[in-house]
């Protein structure tokens, strides 16, 4: 009877990535949350998944704001030299 509410490990782990993306709603979200509250194994899986998702997000942000490359820096240095003459 509790299984109907809590769900299986297999089902929960399949839905963990959806949960981390914020796509899991309503009853499915409650089932995953209820399962995680009583299952150490799935909590461990979720922790490693959330670390992975966090790293992917950081990488995506780094790509979105690229640091100035050497060519940009050279350009600025060259301009400053010209202005000093
Ligand atoms: Zn489990």
Low-confidence parts: none
- Indicate the proportion of strand residues: under 5%
Q: Domains counted in the coordinates: how many?
A: 1
Main sheet specs? none
Measure the end-to-end span. 84 Å
Task: Describe the fold and architecture.
The termini are far apart. Helix 2 (9-21) crosses helix 3 (26-38) and helix 3 crosses helix 4. The protein has helices spanning 2-6, 9-21, 26-38, 40-64, 70-84. The protein has one domain (2-84). With 85 residues, it is mostly helical. The longest helix has 25 residues, at 40-64. It is rod-shaped and about 80 Å long. The protein binds zinc ion. Zinc ion binds at residues 9, 12, 35, 39, 41-42.
Show the helix and strand layout:
Layout: H1 2-6, H2 9-21, H3 26-38, H4 40-64, H5 70-84
Helix pairs in contact: 2-3, 2-4, 3-4
Bound molecules: zinc ion.
Zinc ion is lined by residues 9, 12, 35, 39, 41-42.
Quick structural gist:
With 85 residues, the chain is an all-alpha fold.
State the main characteristics.
85 residues; mainly alpha; binds zinc ion
């Amino acid at each position: 009877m509790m299984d109907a509410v809590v769900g299986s490990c297999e089902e929960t782990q399949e839905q963990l990535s959806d949960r981390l993306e914020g796509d899991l709603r309503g009853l499915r979200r409650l089932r995953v949350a209820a399962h995680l509250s009583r299952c150490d194994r799935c909590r461990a899986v979720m922790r490693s998944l959330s670390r992975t998702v966090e790293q992917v997000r950081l990488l995506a942000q780094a790509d979105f704001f690229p640091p100035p490359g050497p060519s940009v820096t050279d350009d600025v240095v060259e301009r400053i030299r010209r202005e000093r003459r």
